[in-house]
Design brief:
69 residues; mainly alpha; 0% strand
């Protein structure tokens, strides 16, 4: 099962699914942006909310600093 997950995650379908999930989360994250929101490192093959938020300039310098640490 892990091999199938890795294979799927490496494909275009997974990137599209992650983008769609992020697009659905964007309004909520923008609404919560002034508050503290904990984003954790994903397990292999899971949506990486921290990286997605950083790419979309959410959370300002706090997320970028956490990703560089």
């Amino acid at each position: 099962m892990l091999a199938r997950r890795r294979e799927w995650w490496a494909g275009a379908e997974a990137r599209l699914a992650a983008d769609k999930l992020g697009e659905q989360l964007l309004p909520l994250l923008r609404q919560l942006e002034p508050l503290t929101l904990g984003l954790y490192w994903p397990l292999e093959g899971e949506f990486n909310a921290a990286a997605w938020a950083s790419t979309h300039k959410l959370g300002g310098d706090a997320i970028g600093a956490a990703l560089r640490a």
